[in-house]
């Protein structure tokens, strides 16, 4: 087992600044590109990360700590951000994400007892019994998945422009 809470938090703390460094100040065209019909662009992904901060990660962690596996987590709508961020800028979303993440990590540090809590369990509506350390590990892997997704979507904007080098660019593989 590789899970160490302090190492998990290292990634969770860095995700907002990583995305901010990558996305702040880019032309709108970068935010509009996606991988085709029914796929997300960078704007959608950042909105999704905000929804996770509000309605997934910390609320489920709190349920594990207070209710255990006595009742399932409420379902998480992975697509709700698609209807909530009209009129916002990328910078507004990045700031909201950074603020939410900062507050959630502060709360996490306050409510977790690292000696006893990581093996506590909750009830996932699809997977059944899950451990707190699995929830936090998934939070980290989820961040990294979406950082990778954003990089891939941005790269694919130039997939037709790279010419023969596409054969060497794994990020552009179909």
How would you explain this protein's 3D organization?
This protein has 6 helices and 2 strands. The protein has 174 residues and is mainly α. The protein has a single domain (5-172), classed as Up-down Bundle (Four Helix Bundle (Hemerythrin (Met), subunit A)). The chain has a two-stranded antiparallel ribbon. A hairpin with a 3-residue loop joins strand 1 and strand 2 (128-131). The radius of gyration is 18 Å and the shape is elongated. The model has no long low-confidence stretch (mean pLDDT 93).
Condensed summary:
It holds the Pfam family DinB_2. This protein has about 170 residues and is mainly α.
Structural class category: mainly alpha
CATH fold category name: Four Helix Bundle (Hemerythrin (Met), subunit A)
Please compute the radius of gyration using only Cα atoms: 18 Å
Architecture, according to CATH? Up-down Bundle
Order of helices and strands: HHHHHEEH
Anisotropy-based shape: elongated
Widest β-sheet, arrangement of strands? 1-2
Low-confidence stretches: none
Protein name: DinB-like domain-containing protein
Domain DinB-like: 12-150
Pfam family, one: DinB_2
Top keywords for this entry?
5% strand; DinB-like domain-containing protein; 6 helices; mainly alpha; DinB/YfiT-like; Four Helix Bundle (Hemerythrin (Met), subunit A); 174 residues; DinB-like
Topology summary:
Elements: H1 5-23, H2 28-32, H3 42-55, H4 57-67, H5 90-111, E1 121-124, E2 128-131, H6 132-156
Antiparallel strand pairs: 1-2
Helix pairs in contact: 1-5, 1-6, 3-4, 3-5, 3-6, 4-5, 4-6
């Amino acid at each position: 087992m590789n899970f160490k809470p302090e190492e998990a938090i290292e990634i969770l703390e860095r995700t907002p600044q990583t995305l901010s460094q990558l996305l702040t100040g880019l032309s709108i065209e970068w935010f509009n590109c996606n991988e085709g019909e029914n796929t997300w662009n960078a704007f959608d992904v950042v909105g999704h990360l905000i929804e996770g901060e509000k309605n997934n990660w910390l609320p489920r962690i709190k349920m594990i700590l207070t209710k255990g596996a006595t009742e399932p987590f409420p379902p998480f709508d992975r697509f709700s951000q698609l209807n909530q961020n009209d009129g916002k800028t990328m910078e507004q979303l990045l700031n909201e994400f950074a603020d939410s993440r900062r507050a959630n990590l502060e709360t996490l540090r306050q409510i977790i007892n690292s000696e006893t809590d990581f093996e506590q369990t909750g009830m996932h509506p699809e997977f059944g019994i899950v451990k707190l350390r699995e929830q936090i590990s998934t939070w980290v892997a989820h961040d990294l998945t979406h950082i990778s997704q954003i990089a891939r979507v941005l790269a694919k904007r130039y997939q037709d422009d790279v010419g023969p080098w596409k054969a060497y660019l794994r990020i552009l593989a179909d």
